[in-house]
């Protein structure tokens, strides 16, 4: 048997043409059905008339809650029936007492109902109710004094209004927001301070001595070299004898010592640590004195007024 190759190619060409024709027919049917569906959807949308939303005809201002001072907005959801009356009023965003005040205000609203093709319908809408704190009442002007005896034809002048207030007080020259103070009476009750106010500083929070007993401190992590010592705003770089002995300033002269661990006044200069500042006692008007006796040292202090004070 002999098979002609030309006949096989012709059969293959015929088969391909048939498949192409079938695919073209299927695609044409699909495009036609899709176009028809889109046309039907567009016709339905065009057939349904648009909805006109409700419109507020009158609305009551919400009452600002007493005791509040903030400005806020409450979102209220309300159902407007076909007669224009509100119902099912509730706050969906906002906190009390503003939410309750907003709901009460919206219940007093009156609406023109929503319409479709001119016919009133029921609709659900959302309304933003703003709350602004009321402005403080302005003082009423002072009326002219009729008893001042103004003559005929004269205009009485209003009484002058004071616009200047003077406040007198005592200024503390060493005060700061972080100041901590220790007085003479407290120092004498602290064990290990030897009656010296500058040694009593290590009981305060944030103060740690290098070694227990040494009067040189870390203040909030800053080393002793970054801590400033002052007496009546005068810096004292050498405060203790031999580094650990008694102070070079007689304790009887010091009224109190203040610790400024941070935010100290700028007049003390630049220090990375804190400031330890002492204040002197007022001069005596009569004879007074005191003495200290310890195992390794002794001291005394006597003060008296002279020449009539």
**Secondary structure category:** alpha+beta
Helix content: 10-25%
SSE topology string = HEEEEHEEEEEHEEEEEEEE
Average pLDDT, rounded to a whole number, is: 76
Cα distance spanning the termini: 154 Å
Largest sheet, described in full? 5 strands, mixed
**Tally of separate helices:** 3
Strand order of the largest sheet: 9-14-15-12-13
Overall geometry: elongated
Radius of gyration: 47 Å
Q: How many strands?
A: 17
Beta-strand level of the residues, as a percent range? 25-35%
Uncertain ranges = 1-5
Keywords:
about 300 residues; alpha+beta; three-stranded antiparallel beta sheet; about 25% strand
Chart the SSEs and their pairings.
Blueprint: H1 5-47, E1 51-52, E2 55-58, E3 72-80, E4 86-93, H2 98-107, E5 110-112, E6 114-116, E7 119-121, E8 123-131, E9 180-183, H3 184-187, E10 207-209, E11 217-219, E12 228-231, E13 234-235, E14 254-260, E15 275-280, E16 288-293, E17 298-303
Parallel strand pairs: 12-15
Antiparallel strand pairs: 1-6, 2-5, 3-4, 3-8, 6-7, 9-14, 10-11, 12-13, 14-15, 16-17
